[in-house]
Amino acid sequence: MTSLYYYKRKKRRKFQGLYSRILIRLTVPLLFLAVVFTTLQLTNQMNAMNESYKIESRFIFDSIQKALDAEFKREGFSVDSPELAKTLETMKTFHQVASIEIYDLFEKKPLTENPEFVWDAFDLAGAEESIYHKTLGKPYHIKVDKAAKRLVGYIPVDRPGYSALYIARAIYPLASLRKALSQSVWTLLVTFLLIALTGVLMGYGLAKSIANPLKALNEATREIVKGNLNRKVPIHTGDEIGALGDTFNQMVESLNEMKKRAEDSNPLTQLPGNQGIFHEIRRRLHERQKFVLFHIDLDRFKVFNDHYGLARGDEAIQKTARLLKDVVKEKGAADDFVGHQGGDDFVLTVQPQHAREIAETLVKRFDHEIVRSLYRKDDYDQGYTLQVDRRRLAETGEEVTIKFPLLSISLAGVSNVKKDFADYFECMSSAVEVKKEAKKTVTSSYVIKE
Known about the structure:
The protein has helices at 2-15, 18-72, 82-95, 121-135, 177-225, 240-264, 274-286, 301-308, 310-331, 352-374, 377-382, 390-396, 424-438, and strands at residues 99-104, 109-110, 141-145, 150-158, 165-173, 292-299, 337-342, 345-350, 384-388, 401-405, 408-415, 445-449. It has 450 residues and is an alpha+beta fold. It folds into 2 domains: 21-178, Beta-Lactamase (2-Layer Sandwich), CATH 3.30.450; 268-449, Reverse transcriptase/Diguanylate cyclase domain (Alpha-Beta Plaits). The strands form 3 sheets. A 5-stranded antiparallel sheet has the order 2-1-5-4-3, sandwiched between helices. A hairpin with a 2-residue loop joins strand 7 and strand 8. Helix 2 (18-72) runs antiparallel to helix 5 (177-225), helix 8 crosses helix 9 (310-331) and helix 9 (310-331) runs antiparallel to helix 10. It is elongated.
């Protein structure tokens, strides 16, 4: 069953190869761009045609206005005469407009018994506006009917000697998608085909140019999965794929480093151990970085262990490690370092400008969070634990119960801002000396020597 599954999976991969995926993912967006380009081209074409139609319509409306004025002033003219209908039909044909009809504004009815386009509220508003425009000295008023895609001219016509007021409505069509498409069909078709062909050729070229490097990366990755962390890839294309190869090789180096750190890390806190601390400080000294090294331990940790047991002691170490990591993450920089030498001894390396704030925060939060969570309420409230003095018991055999203060934390910091350290050992030795000063107080404290 498993073999059949992998066979089908391998067969499916054969039809879903790199070329097909790149071709599809490259061609589809290009086709989408072609559709967008086509839409924009048609929109621009329609806008250009509409602008042309607007200009052309003004000449036509001017001509209609002059012709109607002359017709209405002609001797013997009658609005009921069949000659008027013939004149309107002749002008409609000559000017290639959709309709020319006359409306009696006083009687509120068209002169044509069965108008091709019904007079509605839109037309009545246009007719009234044309009267207003006439008072401003304009011969007619033009409205754009977007829904019907047409220009409508409303032309007031006076008939001398009559009180009637007539409005001629001339309808001139705007550009339609069909017209725009008919004028651009070959340009759009050629452009569409060129974009599609470009997508196919680019997809093929990209698939071919990156297939071999990806194959090498895949083989190297399989070697790493098997545990061979020394496998690198020789990809030198000078582009993003080459950068990917370099990143892969850097990843291999990082994996080797992480493996070494994992082998060195403290099993209780998962923090880097002595080797990690050594390499970190040596690296900073070698790169001439300015930093503050804190050597940290818990005061009276053995007393706490004797009183509460090893399990609670491990809990104290783990909580302290989490506190160190949290505070450094919140108050420090991205490259600050937290290490665990063993037992209750920790090491921090932080940037000088953050050192004092980190130390103050650690001292405060250790006393208020860690200590409170580790002790029983009665011990915490009284501020000490009662225990047998083991040293006196060992020396004299006398059992004497004494008061031991609660746990505290001491941070001994040394900086190379003003004084350079020769090596790791001098740096750590200086921190140990400063720790003697930090431990002079019973409560949690820190000291930073520059």
